[in-house]
């Protein structure tokens, strides 16, 4: 069991997934915090895994981040699989995402010089 200062592995993974989706949608921590009625510091703690996220708050986060939650017809439970599924998010993903997004905004005249740099 982690100490008070350490993040639990599951909490940290869920926080990474939230950060990943938030950035992909172009939202700041402040945007998410405002939607949830929190401070951005609280969102930071959720994303680092320092603070655990309750089910109702996780549901609110999913709604804001447009993450579809499936309801099981058998027992009417909401599935939060998206938050815990998937592999680890690799270091440098944010820079790669921003580079790809920027590349998509370039005009063809700006792409050609970049392509000449690639062997």
Automatic annotation (TrEMBL):
One of its GO terms (molecular function) is DNA binding. Pfam families: HTH_3. Residues 18-72 form the HTH cro/C1-type domain. SMART domains: HTH_XRE. InterPro entries: Cro/C1-type_HTH (IPR001387), Lambda_DNA-bd_dom_sf (IPR010982). Coiled coil: none annotated. This is Transcriptional repressor DicA. The lineage of its organism: Bacteria, Pseudomonadati, Pseudomonadota, Alphaproteobacteria, Hyphomicrobiales.
């Amino acid at each position: 069991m982690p100490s008070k200062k350490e993040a639990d592995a599951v909490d940290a993974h869920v926080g990474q997934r939230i950060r990943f989706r938030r950035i992909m949608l172009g939202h700041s921590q402040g945007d998410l915090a405002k939607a949830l009625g929190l401070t951005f510091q609280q969102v930071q703690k959720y994303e680092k895994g320092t603070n655990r996220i309750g089910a109702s708050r996780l549901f609110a986060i999913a709604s804001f981040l447009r993450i579809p939650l499936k309801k099981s017809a058998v027992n009417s439970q909401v599935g939060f699989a998206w938050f815990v599924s998937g592999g680890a998010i690799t270091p440098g993903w944010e820079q790669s995402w921003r580079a790809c997004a920027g590349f998509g905004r370039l005009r063809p005249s700006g792409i050609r010089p970049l392509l000449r740099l690639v062997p």
